[in-house]
């Protein structure tokens, strides 16, 4: 009997958190973030904000600084503001309890396939670089970690995984098979769980059916995008279908170790509302003719 499986660790519409860092996602957070990563669903989290009694009051800083920082701790004008935040459920108690029950079933299923080789087939929705940014105090660098092929859904064995799933590939795979959106891909690979995402790795026995999709990214374009790209600073909901978007894993080493993800624009557009790619698509849609940007 075929099962329909959904990634409940990434289910939307369940929780919000009012922390300013979540504002670009309309304060929505994934179950994975609050149940597995931060583990803050029941207890919440405490944040200490650095403040200055005279900053912003047209009074010059006695030490000549323009903002509050770690060099201000011994100043008489420095103080800390303690802020407590706790995630909120967007659904009623019955729906929330059903989610937790279903989550146990999903985690059991995941435990039976994680680390094992599975057969998979699905239709490609996007191909983009896998990027990693390392932050060490004020220094940062971005490196490539292969590529990700995205599927909106697909079959793991005989079961339908009715949620986003990724295949991690290398440069040689990209050059040999030239995967593109709308192509149908079938292969065997090892299933892994990457911070809530289901990622297939080390594909073998690959079969591909080309469906007139044109490859958008190649190694050279990815290298250029890695160098010229930037993190999107505002609403990323406008970028989800963009071929020039990529997920960026950020690893902070110092001052405080942390790991998180951001949305990275390979075209270097920092604010989605000003994106020329989206503007071009809107103009083409309205005029049915190509426009040079």
Helical content band:
10-25%
Would you identify the CATH architecture of the largest domain? Beta Barrel
What is the chain-wise order of helices and strands?
EEEHEEEHEEEEEHEEHEEEH
Beta percentage is 35-45%
> Over all CA atoms, what is the radius of gyration?
22 Å
Number of helical regions:
5
CATH class of the largest domain: Mainly Beta
Largest sheet: 5 strands, mixed, barrel
What topology, given as strand order, has the largest sheet? 7-8-11-13-12
| CATH domain fold name of the largest domain | OB fold (Dihydrolipoamide Acetyltransferase, E2P)
Structural class: alpha+beta
State the oligomer.
single chain
Number of domains: 2
Can you put this structure into words, describing what you see?
It is a single chain. The chain is an alpha+beta fold and 293 residues long. The chain folds into two domains: 7-90, no CATH class; 114-287, Nucleic acid-binding proteins (OB fold (Dihydrolipoamide Acetyltransferase, E2P), Beta Barrel), CATH 2.40.50.140. The protein has five helices and 16 strands. Strand 7 and strand 8 (139-151) form a beta hairpin. The longest helix is centred in the middle third of the chain and has 21 residues, at 93-113. It is globular, with a radius of gyration of 22 Å.
Protein traits:
5 helices; OB fold (Dihydrolipoamide Acetyltransferase, E2P); 293 residues; single chain; 2 domains; three-stranded antiparallel sheet; 16 strands
């Amino acid at each position: 009997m075929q099962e329909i499986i959904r990634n409940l660790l990434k289910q939307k519409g369940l929780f919000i958190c009012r922390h300013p860092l979540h504002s670009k996602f309309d304060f929505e957070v994934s179950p994975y973030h609050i149940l597995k990563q931060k583990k803050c669903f029941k207890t919440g989290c405490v944040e200490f904000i650095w403040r200055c009694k005279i900053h912003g009051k047209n009074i010059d800083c006695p030490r000549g600084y323009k903002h509050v920082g770690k060099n201000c701790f011994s100043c008489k004008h420095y103080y800390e503001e303690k802020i407590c935040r706790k995630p909120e459920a967007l659904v009623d108690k019955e729906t929330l309890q059903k989610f937790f029950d279903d989550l146990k079933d999903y985690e059991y299923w995941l435990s039976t396939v994680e680390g094992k080789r599975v057969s998979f087939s699905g239709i490609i929705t996007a191909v983009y670089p896998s990027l990693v940014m390392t932050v060490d105090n004020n220094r940062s660098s971005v490196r490539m970690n292969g590529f990700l092929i995205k599927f909106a859904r697909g079959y793991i064995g005989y079961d339908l995984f009715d949620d986003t799933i990724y295949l991690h590939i290398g440069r040689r795979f990209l050059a040999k098979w030239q995967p593109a959106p709308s192509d149908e891909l079938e292969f065997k690979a090892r299933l892994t769980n990457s911070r809530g995402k289901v990622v297939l790795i080390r594909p073998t026995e690959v079969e591909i059916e080309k469906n007139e999709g044109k490859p958008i990214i190649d190694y050279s374009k990815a290298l250029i995008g890695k160098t010229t790209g930037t993190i999107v600073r505002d609403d990323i909901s406008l970028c989800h279908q963009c071929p020039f978007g990529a997920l960026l894993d950020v690893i902070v080493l110092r001052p405080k170790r942390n790991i998180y993800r951001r949305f990275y624009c390979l075209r270097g557009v920092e604010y989605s509302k000003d994106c020329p790619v989206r503007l071009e698509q809107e103009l083409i849609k309205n005029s049915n003719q190509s426009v040079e940007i």
